[in-house]
Amino acid sequence: MSIEYPESYLCDILNEVRTIAVVGASSKKHRDSYKVMQSLIENGYKVFPINPNESGKNILNLEFSLVLMQSKKILIWSIFFVHMML
After folding, report:
1. Between 70 and which of 7, 19, 44, 65 could a Cys-Cys bridge form, CB atoms 3.0 to 4.6 Å apart?
2. Domain around 39
3. What does the pLDDT read at residue 73?
4. Distance between CA 46 and CA 84 in Å, rounded?
5. For residue 61, what is the domain's CATH number?
């Protein structure tokens, strides 16, 4: 299921927050989560990649966290990526 939000709503969020957790982040460069993380970092956001399957790896010079709570940082907003097998 896809939820559509007005562009103005998403712009307001991105203008208000500077710290974002990307839950389901991937170290694979062709994945959307990788591209989103790369863009957020390039635009000055502090990003925390979260994915238990990527434990011990780095992505864009950041270490993966197993779970959101492990990051021990105050997070303002999270982006969730879920890979669905149909």
Report:
1. 65
2. 7-80
3. 55
4. 27
5. 3.40.50.720
At 45, list the tokens.
């956001």
Looking at residue 71, its amino acid is S
CB 43 within 8 Å of CB 37: no
Please report which confidence band the pLDDT of residue 85 belongs to, taking 50, 70 and 90 as the band edges.
very low
Report the amino acid identity of residue 39. S
Q: In terms of DSSP H, where are the helices of 1-86?
A: 7-16, 32-42
Is residue 2 in a domain? no
Distance CA 51, CA 4 (A): 25
Which of these, 19, 53, 12, 17, lies nearest to 37 by C-alpha position? 19
Q: What is the pLDDT of residue 67?
A: 64
